[in-house]
């Protein structure tokens, strides 16, 4: 999954003291949500593609580029409000949620430097943090049938 950043973004990534860092924005969608959750990891909100992204502290690691496995990323959001916890309870742990990761520079929000949509899974909640994994559902390595006839599942056949 090669990434191609603009010249300004590459300069900021390679600088030891960048003038403006890349902003990470998330758009979380779920069938139970009427409107997607849109947040940006900054002190002030930003408008991207005509949508307002609200400033919210979170930590997100970008997916790795290893050829031997599917890309995995990690997301941690501070558990500061009851809204997120309530949504997770209502949606059975956020099952079926998708998360779009977007990187932009504040000076040019119309140029999307990085854009990737991943499945959100394995959500864990504690008193201070809501964390989860971002990746693709591994459908190719799932069994074709739910029940397999083996000695431990059907001992009468063996």
From TrEMBL:
Name the Pfam families for this protein.
DUF1833
The organism's superkingdom is given as: Bacteria
Name the UniProt record assigns to this protein = DUF1833 domain-containing protein
């Amino acid at each position: 999954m090669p990434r191609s950043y603009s010249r300004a973004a590459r300069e900021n990534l390679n600088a030891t003291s960048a003038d403006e860092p890349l902003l990470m924005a998330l758009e979380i969608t779920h069938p139970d949500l009427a409107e997607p959750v849109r947040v940006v990891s900054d002190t002030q909100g930003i408008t991207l593609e005509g949508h307002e992204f609200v400033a919210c502290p979170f930590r997100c690691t970008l997916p790795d580029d290893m050829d031997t496995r599917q890309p995995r990323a990690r997301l941690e959001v501070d558990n500061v409000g009851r809204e997120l916890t309530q949504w997770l309870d209502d949606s059975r742990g956020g099952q079926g949620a998708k998360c779009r990761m977007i990187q932009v520079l504040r000076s040019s929000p119309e140029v999307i430097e990085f854009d990737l949509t991943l499945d959100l899974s394995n959500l864990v909640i504690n008193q201070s943090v809501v964390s989860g994994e971002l990746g693709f559902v591994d459908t190719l390595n799932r069994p074709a049938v739910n029940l397999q006839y083996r000695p431990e599942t059907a001992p009468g056949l063996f």
